[in-house]
Fold this sequence. Notes:
- Helices cover about 45% and strands about 20% of the residues.
- By secondary structure, the chain is α/β, with parallel strands linked by helices.
- The protein folds into 3 domains: about 1-65, Winged helix-like DNA-binding domain superfamily/Winged helix DNA-binding domain (Arc Repressor Mutant, subunit A), CATH 1.10.10; about 90-160 and about 265-290, D-Maltodextrin-Binding Protein, domain 2 (3-Layer(aba) Sandwich); about 165-255, D-Maltodextrin-Binding Protein, domain 2.
- A 5-stranded mixed β-sheet has the order 4-3-5-12-6, sandwiched between helices. The chain has a 5-stranded mixed β-sheet with strand order 9-8-10-7-11. A two-stranded antiparallel ribbon has the order 1-2.
- The protein starts with a helix and ends in a 6-residue tail after the last helix.
Amino acid sequence: MRQIALILAVDDLRTLRAAASQLGLTQPAATKMLHELEDALGQRLFDRVGRGLKLNPAGERVTGHFRSIRGSMEALNRQLGEFRLGGVGKFSVGSIMAASPGRLTDAMLSLKREFPLLTMEIIIDTSDRLLSRLREGTLEIVVGRVTPLAGIECNFTAIDDEALVVIARNGHPLARKHSLDFEAMLDYAWVLQPQGSPMRGVIEREFRAHHRPLPQGLIETGSIPTTINLVSRSDLLAVIPQAVAQRDAEHGVLCILPYDFGQKLESYGSLVPNDRPLSRPAARFLELLHTECTAPCE
Length: 298
């Protein structure tokens, strides 16, 4: 584990001296550990670039495995810590916003009935950020999408497609129209998700399909509640999942503009690391999540 920590620290900090300092090692001791690991693997892991070190292809493969090992150990330590405190453990799941109103909530409530003393944590964010936390071991399961830069190998089981809609405040000038073309929306500023998120990619493709650049002066946020608050108090436009927008539109919080997206998001589903075992509550949650998908969500 010390060697794993050293390699990951060198990757993060780019110098052996900084990595050794972070881990409380002398530089000669760190150098010896690195050479011993490279000798054991039969491969050099880093190339020297200037005064720093950069992973070579073999090093990139090794650090990918090492991050998974560290994530597994962190997850195990977290569970053992809960047991030492007299609890029955903790289950942490990450989810995109679209899954939260129905499927995720139903599965979590069912799990709570079966494990009433279980501590449960739900993190709502974009798929790319959730997968980063899954890789580090702070989440056991993610309900979201596979992203190209996830950095972790997962088993993916699809749940549903996610339709997107353009939203605006009640009383917005565009809300009075019965149909809406793309050009009419370009006169307004937009709130979009950060670059790298699957939804942002879909929106960018929609603009490219109409041969238009993204609007200037964007507000970027991965928080859908923040997006809704911004839109409801201004003439800003935004794109959010239809499942979320429909609920808020029915309660008079916002309106859905009459525009059909030509681009579609890929299906979302459960993402489970294939290099570490699930806890019993996590395995049961997975069963409940996909059982709930077979019946209509209320």
